[in-house]
């Protein structure tokens, strides 16, 4: 009995494994290049009229320190897996609103720039060390630093033409940055046994140290 014999050697070749690492390297390079060309002194200054949603949406994107911290939250959640993938990114903007209220109310809160710089260092170090923190502790860390980021945003809210729309804008932008961090962590984070995520964590730590030096200076 004759039949068609399938030649298993004639399979469609899989995409080169080097493609994903090259994409990860490109993303990391772009982030570092953008960070190095940014002026830390203007990280929290939004130019132009404070019109509402658009200004609020622009603010987290215009400050590299905010962006790196929010990206790190998403990346760390993806690295830990489980419920932390969504719990950390949900907790951060919620508690950030609390810090925003404190900023609007004019409550004295010293060391905002130091707190923001430390948030980048701590979150980056957690990613670099691939730290599987207990859920309650990870949420506490994220919530603690979210207050500083929220305060920095909230302190500018009274200048906005529409403070409520401005607040919605920066919360939406924050959520989008978290999603990007999660996506990078899930797509590239486990390449080379997790070394890609850890390398990104190391870059985030270096950026945090840069901001810490500027905050102290």
TrEMBL record:
Domain of life: Bacteria
Record's keyword terms, sorted: Membrane, Transmembrane, Transmembrane helix
Keyword Membrane: yes
Transmembrane region(s): 85-105, 111-129, 136-152, 164-189, 196-213
InterPro entries: HupE_UreJ
Name of the protein in question: HupE/UreJ family protein
Source organism of the structure: Pararhizobium mangrovi
């Amino acid at each position: 009995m004759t039949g068609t014999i399938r030649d298993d050697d004639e399979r469609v070749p899989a995409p080169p494994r080097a493609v994903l690492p090259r994409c990860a390297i490109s993303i990391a390079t772009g982030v570092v290049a953008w960070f190095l060309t940014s002026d830390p002194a203007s990280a929290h200054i939004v130019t132009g009229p404070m019109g509402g949603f658009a200004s609020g949406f622009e603010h987290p994107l215009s400050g590299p320190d905010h962006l790196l911290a929010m990206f790190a939250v998403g990346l760390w959640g993806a690295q830990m897996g489980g419920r932390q993938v969504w719990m950390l990114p949900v907790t951060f903007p919620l508690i950030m609103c609390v810090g925003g209220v404190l900023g609007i109310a004019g409550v004295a809160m010293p060391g905002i720039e130091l707190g923001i710089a430390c948030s980048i260092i701590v979150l980056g170090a957690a990613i670099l060390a691939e730290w599987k923190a207990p859920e309650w502790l990870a949420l506490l860390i994220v919530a603690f630093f979210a207050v500083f980021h929220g305060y920095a945003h909230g302190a500018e809210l009274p200048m906005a033409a529409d403070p409520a729309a401005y607040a919605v804008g920066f919360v939406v932008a924050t959520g989008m940055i978290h999603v990007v961090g999660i996506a990078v962590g899930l797509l590239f984070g486990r390449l080379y046994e997790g070394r890609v995520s850890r390398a990104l964590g190391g870059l985030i730590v270096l950026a945090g140290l840069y901001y810490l030096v500027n905050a102290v200076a």
